[in-house]
Amino acid sequence: MLELKNIVFEVRTEDGAIKRIIDDLSLTIPDDRFTVITGPNGGGKSTLAKLIMGIEKPTSGRILFNGEDITDLSITERSKRGVGYGFQQPARFKGMKVKKLLDIAAGKRLPMLACNEYLAKVGLCSAAYLTREVDKSLSGGEVKRIEIATILARDPKLAIYDEPEAGIDLWSFDRLTETFRDIHEARDGRSIVIISHQERIIQLADEIVLLRDGKVERTGAPADLMPVLGFTPKGIPGCQLSEPTELHLTEIPTTC
Fold it and tell me: Which of 86, 100, 108, 197, by CA, is between 20 and 30 Å from 149?
């Protein structure tokens, strides 16, 4: 279980002023839970994800994971305890092949069949990618999918994905949502936290967290919160696409 207690995160702006990004936020994510964090741009979603992983350190407050205070632990120490993270813009590793990256993520040498399965879950062909380097020759979407595959290989107790749909084509996005659904339906105690604006991902959640101005404005099930988010049926027969009335144009989902 993940517990965030009275988390505050402040930064100093160029003019010397203090800006509060996360404002006295408290949130509990139980085991075996699929949580989607959404809300307007600039609300603190990615910052919150980085605080959980240890990429940023809170100005005040505590972060507990399975009862242990991990507020001051490093990224490596949190990873050893079972926390995984997928960046919105993953890093590239010149000279590092996909197969080696999967092995490192898993902490062991993986059989080819396992590598095939991890890559297939993110819509990539093993034969075309295992021996390729994770460098500039790959598109942003390809690197994103490879990173997600490494998180699957790592198999963390808590997996955090920051906008996993970014830069991914619609076919691969379909495969990815199926993978998230399969992970959750396994009900093996693992939890997923996804930062997303995509309706199809939001619909998979057990709980939606609406974050605005660094505060949890509201939480609830998709059926309760999707109307609050502005997702309303368009009335087109055969298409379940909804249109968020409040989100930025770039965040409007394209699921049909």
Answer: 197
What is the four-CA torsion angle of 45, 48, 53, 58, rounded to 10 degrees? 160
DSSP letter at 249 equals G
Please name which of 154, 180, 162 lies closest in space to residue 89, comparing C-alpha atoms.
162
- pLDDT in single tens digits along all 256 residues of the chain: 999 999 999 999 888 899 999 999 999 999 889 999 999 888 999 999 999 999 999 999 999 999 999 999 999 999 999 999 988 778 788 889 999 999 999 999 999 999 999 998 888 888 889 999 988 888 878 888 898 899 999 999 999 999 888 777 777 777 778 888 887 787 677 899 999 988 888 888 999 999 999 999 999 998 888 888 877 544 434 444 444 444 444 444 444 3
| pTM for this prediction | 0.80
The token duo for 205 is 């959640």
Pairing, β 60-65 against β 133-134: unpaired
Alpha-carbon distance values, 20 to 7, 10, 38, 43, 218 (Å):
11, 4, 19, 11, 19
- Own/partner contacts of 216-224, CB < 8 Å, gap of 24 or more, are 216/25, 216/26, 216/27, 217/39, 219/27
CB-CB contact of 180 with 200 (8 Å): no
| 218, burial (CB in 10 Å: exposed 0-12, middle 13-18, buried 19+) | middle
Tokens 């999918």, residue located: 145
Token representation of residue 210: 């609406």
